[in-house]
Specification:
There is one protein chain. By secondary structure, this protein is an alpha+beta fold. It has two domains: 12-132, Nucleoside Triphosphate Pyrophosphohydrolase, CATH 3.90.79; 166-309, Nucleoside Triphosphate Pyrophosphohydrolase. The protein contains seven helices and 16 strands. Strands 4-1-6-5 form a four-stranded mixed β-sheet, with helices on one face. Strands 13-11-15-14 form a four-stranded mixed β-sheet, sandwiched between helices. Strands 3-2-7 form a three-stranded antiparallel β-sheet. Helix 5 packs across helix 7. This is NAD(+) diphosphatase. It comes from Mycolicibacterium litorale. Its cofactor is Zn(2+); Mg(2+).
Length: 312
């Protein structure tokens, strides 16, 4: 083995800066009691938020009324005790008049502080789920929000439905030494490469999914599948579970499912050079001439690649 057994840093969207305060989801009175002093995170229809100074803009929740509206979701409690709620609503600038910009989580994640990253990731995932879960999957009855936004209830049967999460694996395949596999999806622009990923199927473990997806996408047989870490990916409601595995550079690539356009074995030195060039944004704004461009820091893929590349 290569000695690669851990990520150097917590993935950006896995950071924790607030108390999720899950007990308040079932204690509706206690959650509502904090509303007068609570803060509000607005997320628009494009999943954008208002950002100022590396923090998401939080306005007074009381601007929406004397109590949480039905569509509000409880996001947690800050270190000073104030509650934070999220809503799908048009964005509003900071009350103090400070400069702000509108960004989505993909573009803002790397500049967020820990609390903002947690709040926006949670709000985006919950609100995306509510947008698509307004009717019971069993009988089509319109459902109602419950548990401070963490569930929906069928009013006819009392059946509760909870936020759906779609688990996906993402894996760096390497030779145990100095080379790793990077691949480009057919729908990606030229030069944009990353590690391999895919959704977990019913009745399948994460490790089995890793082996199956890599065989389907690039035709390699992998061994020694090892867990590295995970990250929420609320686009719209995924959980990325990171791994690394050993592959054989002598085994030819075979693109079996049509998803991958090209793949290659790259040395650690080549990947370090690519990391120094920046990320995918460098390709779209024309600032990089590198033959290899890598995922942005918001993705766990970047952290996995950087952690492997940093090994001696």
């Amino acid at each position: 083995m290569s000695g690669f057994d851990a990520l150097r840093n917590i993935p950006l969207l896995s950071r924790v800066g607030a108390d999720r305060a899950d007990l308040l989801r079932t204690d509706v009175e206690a959650a509502a009691a904090g509303w007068p002093d609570a803060l509000l995170l607005r997320v628009d229809r494009r999943n954008q938020v208002m950002i100022a100074g590396g923090q998401v803009v939080l306005g007074p929740a009381s601007a929406l009324g004397d109590a949480p509206p039905e569509h509000a979701v409880f996001l947690g409690r800050l270190r000073d005790g104030r509650h934070v709620w999220g809503v799908r609503a048009p964005l509003e600038p900071p009350e103090d008049g400070s400069d702000a910009q509108v960004l989505d989580l993909r573009r803002a994640g790397e500049i967020f502080d820990d609390t903002s990253a947690q709040l926006v990731a949670t709000a985006t995932a919950l609100l995306n789920w509510h947008d698509q879960a307004r009717f019971s999957p069993v009988d089509g009855t319109p459902t109602k929000v419950a548990r401070a936004g963490w569930a929906r209830v069928n009013p006819l049967t009392g059946q509760e439905h909870f936020p759906r999460i779609d688990p996906a694996v993402i894996c760096l395949v390497h030779d145990g030494h100095d080379r790793a596999v990077l691949a480009r999806q057919a729908v990606w622009p030229e030069r944009l490469f990353s590690i391999l990923a895919g959704f977990v199927e019913a009745g399948e473990s994460f490790e089995t999914c890793v082996a199956r997806e890599i065989a389907e996408e690039v035709g390699l047989t992998v061994t020694d599948v090892r867990y590295l870490g995970s990250q929420p990916w609320p686009f719209p409601r995924s959980l990325m579970v990171g791994f690394h595995a050993i592959g054989d550079p002598e085994q030819p690539f075979s693109f079996n499912d049509g998803e991958i356009a090209e793949a290659g074995w790259f040395t650690r030195a080549e990947i370090r050079t690519a990391l120094a060039e920046g990320d995918w944004n460098a390709a779209t704004n024309g600032t990089s001439s590198s033959r290899l461009l890598l995922p942005g820091s918001i993705s766990i893929a970047r952290e996995i690649i950087e952690s492997w590349a940093a090994l001696d």
